[in-house]
Amino acid sequence: MNPQSDVWSGVGSNRAKLGRLGWLLAIVIGVSVATLSAKADEGVALAIVYDTSGSMGDMVVNRSGRGESKDVIARRALDALVKQLREFVTNAPAGSTRSLETSVYVFSASGAKELVAPSPFDAAKAANWSKQIPKPGGGTPLGTAAQAGARSVMNSKFNRRHVLILTDGLNTVGPAPEALLAPLMKQAEKDGKTFFAHFVAFDVAAKQFDPMKKLGATVLGAANEAQLNTQISFILEEKILLEAEEPKPKK
């Protein structure tokens, strides 16, 4: 027997063992990093799509029982929404935080316009959202705007993704919402980036949005200001913010 051969054999065996150990260590580290990343990504991504079509200038009954522009009423509803988001973020359980990313989209001549880029929710800046909304005018590119909101939350690092759409009419410009959101929903599910769509049909029959409902979207109708506030608040509380699991308080 050649002693030198035995030595080299032992060295080779040790190298193989070290190689396997390094491989296993890499797997453990990879799993640990993935776990940490998942924890870091707990949060809510919310895209708000606000209808700025010409029909938003029409009148409906406000909370005082008088006729008022739907746009003015919807701006107040947006202010109330911002207040609800602020309370969600600031009233986190002791020792924990709530992560919220928001974006706002309105209609343009043929599609969507990004009014507020996706960013961490800032209550002070959000208080001015309603003042930044353009005046009503033009058609209703609802599908394109909803698609923009959906892509926004799909790109978010957070794992709770929602698109809240306030509209007073059916799509009149470009593809319908169901035509654009259906493939996005399939892609999002495949990529592990599932999002949920919520429609508030303001002064328009909710039944008109049955195609979206069949895709799993929330669809609620609102005929006046009181109903509009109630429906938006319900969606936030029961569909969007409630869905976020509360992190355990730090010890």
Give a verbal description of the structure:
The protein is of the alpha/beta class. It has two domains: 1-40; 41-240, Rossmann fold, CATH 3.40.50. 46% of the residues lie in helices and 20% in strands. The protein is built from eight helices and eight strands. The strands form two sheets. It has a six-stranded mixed β-sheet, sandwiched between helices. Strands 2-3 form a two-stranded antiparallel sheet. The model is unreliable at 24-40 and 244-251 (pLDDT under 50).
Question: What are its keywords?
Answer:
single chain; 251 residues; alpha/beta; Rossmann fold; six-stranded mixed beta sheet; 8 helices; globular
Helix/strand-derived class?
alpha/beta
Oligomer: single chain
**In angstroms, what separates the terminal alpha carbons?**
63 Å
Total domains: 2
Total DSSP helices: 8
Number of strands: 8
Task: Give the CATH superfamily of the largest domain.
Answer: von Willebrand factor, type A domain
Helix content: 40-55%
Q: Largest sheet, order of strands side by side?
A: 5-4-1-6-7-8
Q: Percent of residues in beta strands?
A: 15-25%
Uncertain runs with pLDDT below 50, 5 residues or more?
A: 24-40, 244-251
Quick one: overall form?
globular
CATH architecture of the largest domain: 3-Layer(aba) Sandwich
Query: What's the average pLDDT?
Result: 86
